[in-house]
């Protein structure tokens, strides 16, 4: 990893994130159709995870995001693994990222509660009201602590679909005192308002991070590239640097478990996001090393011209 914090880098320029880790693992020939998704390979084939991180690092990614997005005690228990194994795999995810991308910052992926359900509910947030802020804090706490203890440079609290879950993650981050970024998954409504998947105004959710010292950035991921520019504007309510890593423009059909639509992310479009205030820029689902290489090259040229 670099010898200075990620927050320091964001104060002076743009940092390139990696892309979709699962996308690259599938490109390497791995079947991720199980409920554990890419987390299965933490147990079954850790060297594949190292190779995926290395591919993004070679493409110019300055941040390696761990394969812990889908890891939960409950999900692993359903696969016959206990809580001790869950912790071991979370810790392993950090070490694999360090091996695959030794010059990068390691972002410990903290996926939403819905991701562990493997039913697409991270794109609705329907569970948030029933579980509540305190329940979500308790659910997220172990993984966040394990990632921090394993040495992750920052925790990526990502694909967050609801205000209640954002509140829970921010409260846990404040308690842990480790650097985090908060990334919502959002949509833009017919009036041009950026909203969480649960329907709350994203600007109000981003504003929750204003007084949480642990937060190094807020923004969006796993959203349509066409909605990113509006989301950058909404994220400025936090007073923090902005992180954006959209998907390819295709959409996940949870029932059919496949992607539909046409890929639309472009490095040139990312320049508009940076001009609007984005400082952490990368990709999410269906964004591979070639896309990140184009993004890194375009942003490097932009930095030279600035």
UniProtKB/TrEMBL annotation:
Gene3D superfamilies: Homocysteine-binding-like domain (3.20.20.330)
Residues the record lists as binding Zn(2+): 222, 284-285
InterPro entries recorded: BHMT-like (IPR017226), HCY_dom (IPR003726), HCY_dom_sf (IPR036589), Hcy_S-methyltransferase (IPR051486)
Transmembrane regions: none
Co-factor remark: Binds 1 zinc ion per subunit.
Cofactor or coenzyme needed: Zn(2+)
A GO MF label: zinc ion binding
GO biological process, one term: methionine biosynthetic process
Record-annotated Hcy-binding domain positions: 3-299
Keyword field: Metal-binding, Methyltransferase, Transferase, Zinc
Superkingdom of source: Bacteria
Protein name as it appears in the record: Homocysteine S-methyltransferase
Organism of derivation: Geodermatophilus africanus
């Amino acid at each position: 990893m670099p010898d200075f914090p990620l927050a320091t880098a964001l104060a002076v320029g743009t940092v390139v994130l990696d892309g979709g880790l699962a996308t690259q693992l599938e490109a390497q020939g791995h079947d991720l159709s199980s409920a554990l998704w890419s987390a299965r390979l933490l147990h079954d084939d850790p060297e594949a995870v190292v190779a995926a991180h290395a591919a993004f690092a070679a493409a110019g990614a300055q941040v390696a995001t761990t394969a812990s997005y889908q890891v939960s005690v409950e999900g692993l228990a359903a696969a016959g693994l206990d809580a001790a194994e869950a912790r071991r795999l979370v810790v392993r995810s950090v070490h694999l990222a360090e091996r695959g991308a030794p010059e990068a910052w390691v972002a410990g992926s903290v996926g939403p509660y819905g991701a562990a359900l493997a039913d697409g509910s991270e794109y609705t947030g329907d569970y948030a009201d029933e579980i509540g802020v305190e329940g979500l804090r308790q659910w997220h706490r172990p993984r966040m602590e394990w990632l921090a203890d394993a040495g992750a440079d920052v925790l990526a609290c990502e694909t967050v679909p609801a205000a209640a879950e954002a509140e829970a993650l921010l409260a846990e981050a404040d308690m842990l005192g480790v650097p985090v970024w908060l990334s919502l998954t959002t949509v833009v409504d017919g009036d041009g308002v950026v909203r969480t998947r649960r329907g709350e105004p994203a600007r109000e959710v981003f504003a929750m991070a204003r007084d949480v010292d642990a937060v190094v950035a807020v923004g969006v991921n796993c959203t349509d590239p066409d909605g990113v520019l509006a989301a950058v504007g909404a994220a400025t309510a936090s007073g923090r640097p902005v992180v954006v890593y959209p998907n390819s423009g295709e959409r996940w059909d949870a029932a059919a478990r496949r992607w539909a639509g046409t890929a639309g992310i472009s490095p040139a479009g990312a320049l508009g996001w940076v001009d609007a205030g984005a400082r952490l820029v990368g990709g999410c689902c269906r964004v591979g090393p070639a896309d990140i290489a184009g993004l890194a090259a375009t942003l490097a040229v932009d930095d030279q011209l600035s």
